[in-house]
C-alpha cells in the first residue's frame, strides 16, 4: 500500500455533557464512508473519567461501527478508570472489530493538574493495519522527543497525536509536529478538539494539522467542527529518508560512550 485515506474528527466538545458528546461522536462516525482509518481527539467525551461499564459500552459501539463502515478506528484518548487508577488511554480497533491494543499518555501534564489524579502511562505499542505501522502519542507526550523516536525506531511511518491543546499553544504545537516529522522521517498527524475550553478558561479552537516528513504542513483545519478526509502518500517517507537519513544516521552513533575522555 502506497496511499492511505484517513479521516480526522475535529470535535466541538461540550465539556460537561459526556453522554451528549458520545452520542454526537457516534453520529459523526456513522456518516463516514470509504476511508481506511479514522482518528478522534483527546478527551472528546469530556474530562470526567469513564467508568469500566461506560468504557465497555463505548468500545462495543465502536467495534460495531468499525465492522459496519469498514474502517480502522483510533478512539483518540481519554480519561478512564482501570482498577483504582485513572489513565489517559486510546484504543485501536480494526475493520473486523478486534481491539488491537491501546496507547497511554506516558507523561501526564503537570501544568493542567493531571499529575494529581492521572497515572503515568504503561503502554506505547506499535500498531499495524493494512501493512501500515503507526503509533499513537497522546497530547503532551509529543513534547518529549524520546517518545516519538522510540516508535520510529520500531518502524512506524505515521504518528497520530490526539490532543486537547489550547489556542495560545497552537503555534508551538505546529513547530513540535514539524520537528517530530522531520527528525523521524514520518507523517505527524495532530487531532484537536474545538469550540471548548480548558478549566482555566483558555479556548480550544481546533487547527488540527498534518505534517509531512519533508517539514511541510500539508493540511491544516480552521476552527469549525468537521470530519476531514485526506490521503497520505507513504512513498514520501522512503523518498525523504533517502535524502535526509537523520533517523538512520543517529542510530549508528553512540553519544554516551562511557570510555570518553576529556581532551583537556
TrEMBL record:
It comes from the Archaea. Pfam families: CN_hydrolase. Residues 4-234 form the CN hydrolase domain. This is CN hydrolase domain-containing protein. It comes from candidate division MSBL1 archaeon SCGC-AAA259B11.
Amino acid at each position: 500500500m502506497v496511499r492511505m485515506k484517513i479521516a480526522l474528527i475535529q470535535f466541538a466538545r461540550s465539556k460537561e455533557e459526556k453522554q451528549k458528546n458520545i452520542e454526537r461522536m457516534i453520529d459523526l462516525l456513522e456518516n463516514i464512508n470509504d476511508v481506511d482509518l479514522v482518528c478522534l481527539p483527546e478527551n472528546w467525551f469530556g474530562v470526567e473519567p469513564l467508568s469500566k461499564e461506560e468504557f465497555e459500552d463505548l468500545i462495543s459501539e465502536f467495534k460495531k461501527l468499525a465492522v459496519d463502515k469498514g474502517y480502522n478506528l483510533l478512539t483518540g484518548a481519554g480519561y478512564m478508570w482501570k482498577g483504582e487508577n485513572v489513565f489517559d488511554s486510546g484504543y485501536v480497533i480494526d475493520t473486523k472489530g478486534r481491539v488491537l491494543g491501546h496507547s497511554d499518555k506516558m507523561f501526564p501534564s503537570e501544568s493542567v493538574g493531571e499529575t494529581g489524579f492521572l497515572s503515568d502511562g504503561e503502554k506505547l505499542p506499535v500498531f499495524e493495519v493494512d501493512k501500515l505501522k503507526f503509533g499513537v502519542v497522546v497530547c503532551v507526550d509529543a513534547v518529549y522527543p524520546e517518545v516519538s523516536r522510540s516508535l520510529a525506531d520500531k518502524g512506524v511511518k505515521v504518528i497520530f497525536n490526539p490532543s486537547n491543546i489550547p489556542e495560545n499553544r497552537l503555534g508551538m504545537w505546529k513547530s513540535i509536529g514539524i520537528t517530530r516529522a522531520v527528525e523521524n522521517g514520518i507523517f505527524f498527524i495532530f487531532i484537536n478538539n474545538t469550540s471548548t475550553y480548558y478549566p482555566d478558561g483558555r479556548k480550544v479552537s481546533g487547527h488540527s494539522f498534518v505534517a509531512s516528513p519533508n517539514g511541510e504542513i500539508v493540511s491544516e483545519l480552521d476552527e469549525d467542527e468537521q470530519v476531514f478526509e485526506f490521503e497520505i502518500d507513504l512513498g514520501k517517507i522512503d523518498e525523504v529518508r533517502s535524502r535526509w537519513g537523520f533517523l538512520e544516521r543517529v542510530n549508528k552513533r553512540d553519544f554516551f560512550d562511557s570510555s570518553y575522555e576529556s581532551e583537556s
